[in-house]
Amino acid sequence: MIRNYFTIAVRNLLRNKLGTAINILGLTIGITSFILIFLFVNNERSYDSFHQNKNDKYRVNIEQDFASGDSRVVGLTSESTATWLSEEFPEVKQVIKIRPFFNPMVISNGDNFFKDNNLLFAEKHFFDFFNFELIRGNAEKALEAPASVVITDELAKKLFGDDEPIGKTVQLSGSFDLDLKVTGIVKKTSQSHIDLNAVVSWNTAHPQAGPIARWFSYSLYSYLQLHDNTDPIQFVKKINENAALKWPDDASNSTYTLQSLDEIYLTSNEVQFIENFKIGNAQNLRMLSILAFFVLIIACVNYVNINTAKSTKRSKEVGLRKTLGAVKTQLIFQFMGEAFLLVFVASLLALLMLDIVVPFFNQLTGKPITFNVDVVFSILPTCGLILVAVTLLSGLYPAFILSAFQPSEVLKTISRNKLTGTFSRQVLITFQFVISISLIAGTFLVLEQINFLQKKELGFNKDQVIVLDLDNSENLSRNFKTFQQLIGSHANVLQTSVSEDALGYGYTNNSGHVIPEGGNNEKVLTTWFGVDMDFIETYDIEVVKGRSFSRNMASDSSAIIVNEAFVRAAGWEDPIQKTIRFSQDWAPVPVIGVVKDFHFQALYQKVNPILMRIAPYNFWKMSIKISGNDVAGTLKFIKEKWQEYEPNYPFEYSFVDQKFAKFYDSEQRLLKAVTVFSIISVIIACLGLYGLTSFTIEQRTKEIGIRKVLGASASHILLILNKRTAVLLLLAFLIALPITYLSTDSWLQNFAYRIEIDLWVFLVSGILTILITLLTVSYQVFRATSIDPASTLKYE
């Protein structure tokens, strides 16, 4: 019996070559797209999944409220906070402090060196709290001794080749020089939000500067593990109540929150000062998952439409089988078997396609997703579920429709022609159009938002400004004034500035509450910029009140310039010569100017209060504004001067505009993905419509011939046959409009600055879908009208 069903299924699929080819192609593309996104989503969700007891481990964040009513979440805490959590709360099993170093450092072994952007300082129980795989060394003692370091296997290979690194000494250079003893090798992993290359013991001290961890006293990351059965919600409530009693001055505008270890990677978009950690985007992941589901559904809809359209051809077969004694369940089994066979073939082709398209998909997403035999075996259960689900989605409805035909009706030609009801197909076609229009409109809106982000006026000049990291070089840090003068002597160098922080990095090294006087007398949470006298002019920041810093005014070394957001938060009407205090114990500092609000962070956040002061030391960044003439020659000159002062440290630079563009890498990748899958969805929908139109025209071949004999023009016949499709497209447009508006508006809520959703986006999307669809249908109709009526009137 099974063999008979299989033979008949193969014969039917081969007999209807066009429908079979369209179904297999559509399902193959749909299943391939679904598995690709499944692999990507699975990869993103697997971050930090290897840590034991990950559901009981959290990062401690602080939510801070601004006087303006805005708020922010920061990932940094202080050493006193970590100690307080460890000592005063019995619910806490353990606390660990970690801190990536401020700036890139160079780790070297003789002539082999590596520039490390992910140098991490951590307490000795780091490998107990985080379960990174330690290949060699003792997890409990590897970070116990001062000046000890654990490096990744990749870094060990670069520094030592095939030699044994344990017990050897590596040199750390950059902001300071230090010798470190290698005490362990950890396996490099890309699946953690902590992107480490080297972990240095927390109690390491510099020979002259003392304990390095002292530099992190007010800016480190605290992670804690709660005891089993501890309710994190109640625990957060408890620590905030305790904090209100311990630090009453800060409790009104600072709240502690916990972020689960297994959620940190995907839920950190709104957390600030975590630039050294990897972050994903949970909302973009959800959008891609919905895209994958829609593409697969469109392919299933094609199968349903084409198979129900072929019902008149199969109806006589059904009638004969029922007359000969076949029952409905047997017929359903046969038709479901045909669907299973077709989906099985499409699934095999999809697995073959994956090997080809994965490299291109990796370029699209920026993720190194692998596809090999091991991956195939790992996703076989998922492929099995897809096979069953797609078989049911695509085959169940046609199977019930075809098996329900009655022999007394289907064996009559006239009655059989009445069995071609199209209501269900019209609903499904409309559904396809809704998805296609929504995806196309979504693509336009994402593109418009990204263009808005990249072109929005930031309040300063980001073009043709180069930033150098001086803190990477001890020589340049000591001699930056002479180096700055040499750079400024070049004709194409318009302005230079040294500062604690440069624009384009998205963060500063200092922030806190200050006390404005003469306003509303409330503390203002403020971001501090340590700058020199030329910072404002180098970035062309507009001074709207008062004046900029001046070398001719000695008092400016202890003066402040604030932004408009600070003035609003302080409640000042006239800010000039108002004063602020950094604490009650500090002397008041005068405000000499107000600059226009400018964005130094990505446009996810609003402009918050900012103050600029002349930094007495810690000039870590040099900003160089150059002309557009001979940029390559100017960079060559700067490099030559760099190498004169620092021959041992590689010359590296960044353009501020490129730094800002990187803020939106995830949105750029989302745009590419949405665009690709929008095109795929339209192609699959058009494939189905092409096949469906072919069967419809086949059924109406004689009608077309008669109309031509009676004098109907090809355009008139085209209008008649396209009329129903046009109505469905209009209905789909009306349904897609609110769906797309609500979904894109939800995505745009992530941005403090965003576009307004315009009607033209939906109109263009609808018109584009209509044109593509009507061209697909019209091609088939035009072919039918080109046939000689003498031939078509003989058609049966």
From TrEMBL:
Residue span, ABC3 transporter permease C-terminal domain: 290-404, 676-789
One matching Pfam family: MacB_PCD
Topological relation to the membrane, as annotated: Multi-pass membrane protein
Transmembrane regions: 21-41, 287-306, 339-358, 378-405, 426-447, 670-692, 727-748, 760-782
Record flagged with keyword Endoplasmic reticulum: no
Keyword annotations: Cell membrane, Membrane, Transmembrane, Transmembrane helix
Protein name, UniProt field: ABC transporter permease
Species this protein is from: Splendidivirga corallicola
